[in-house]
Design brief:
Elements: H1 4-26, H2 35-52, H3 57-67, E1 68-77, E2 80-87, E3 92-98, H4 110-122, H5 127-134
Antiparallel strand pairs: 1-2, 2-3
Helix pairs in contact: 4-5
């Protein structure tokens, strides 16, 4: 049995595949940068922190949009964010950022901090000594 719809579908599929191949061949490859141009971009990158402050907020945002692919924020704990920046080109930068909370109980490690505070107080330590000791919990 000869099915005209099947043959028509096969012809359409073959045409679509050929169109895709032609389109892929027409996609322009990224430009190769000369050594001089690479050096110029590197020099700009080295001075970007000093230049950054001279840019308006609008220009800073536009530059970041060109450099970033996406930013992923994950709240690990109540007082901590995990930030991951995915740069154009695939490199990533990750950082853990402490964020303010409304009470001591919401801090990670608050129970250990409270235990240490009571222990130091029972040993007769001054408020200044206890405060200095508690400052070690920030690390």
């Amino acid at each position: 049995m000869n099915n005209p719809y099947g043959e028509e579908a096969l012809r359409a599929l073959k045409q679509a595949e050929e169109t895709i191949i032609q389109h892929q061949q027409q996609i322009e490859k990224p430009m190769e940068l000369s050594t001089e141009l690479k050096a110029a971009f590197s020099a700009i990158g080295e001075h970007l922190p000093q230049l950054w402050e001279q840019f308006s907020s609008k220009h800073q945002k536009a530059l970041l949009r060109c450099l970033l692919d996406k930013v992923v924020v994950h709240r690990c704990q109540r007082d901590t964010l995990q930030l991951r920046i995915v740069w154009r080109g695939g490199d990533t930068t990750s950082q853990t950022i402490p964020i303010p909370v409304n009470s001591l109980a919401e801090l990670s490690g608050s129970q250990e901090m409270e235990r240490s505070l009571l222990e130091q107080s029972q040993k007769g330590k001054s408020d200044e000594e206890i405060s200095a000791h508690l400052g070690n919990f920030d690390d």
